[in-house]
Amino acid sequence: QVHLVESGGGLVQAGGSLRLSCAASGRTSRSYAMGWFRQAPGKEREFVAAISWSGTSTYYADSVKGRFTISRDNAKNTVYLQMNSLKPEDTAVYYCAADHDSGRYYVRLRSADYDTWGQGTQVTVSS
After folding, report:
1. What is d(CA 50, CA 61) in angstroms, rounded to the nearest whole number?
2. What is the pLDDT of residues 68-90, one digit of tens each?
3. Which of 4, 92, 98, 106 could form a disulfide with 38 if both were Cys (CB 3.0 to 4.6 A apart)?
4. Contact 4/98 with Cβ under 8 angstroms?
5. Nearest to 121 by CA among 87, 90, 98
6. First vs last Cα of the chain: how many Å apart?
7. Cα 43 vs. chain centroid, distance in angstroms?
């Protein structure tokens, strides 16, 4: 079983930047794609970004494309989400998740495809 822990959230002004981290522990020997999702108050959880195990495939939601960058360091079992040019509408709880069934080179976008989730980290962007 893989255990995920997010960190790096906080309060930032609009236009600012944050970098989220997601550290995996436990049975990390299997390959797994990683995704970031977010949930704002009163809204459903939505996809933000995903990266394949190999790191060669990435995908972003249109709302964050060009502002957010997902990356991973498999030697450290850590995935990152660099968030630049933050907007108040980016305010949400951000979750990282692992998908153990997508293979080494592919990513999937549905939250239902991800089998392991972190506890979430709050990101608040003030206007």
Report:
1. 9
2. 999 999 999 999 999 999 999 99
3. 92
4. yes
5. 90
6. 40
7. 18
* Placement of tokens 């933050």 in the chain: 86
**Residues, the chain:** 127
- Which residues lie below 8 Å from residue 86, measured CB to CB, with a gap of 6+? 12, 14, 15, 16, 17, 18, 67, 123, 125
φ, ψ of residue 113 in degrees (nearest 5): -80, -10
Give the Cα separation of 43 and 62 in Å (integer): 17
Taking the C-alpha atoms of residue 92 and residue 100, their distance in angstroms, rounded to an integer, is 25
CB 57 within 8 A of CB 72: no
**pLDDT tens per residue across span 6-33:** 999 999 999 999 999 999 998 877 889 9
Q: Six-digit token pair at 38?
A: 């977010």
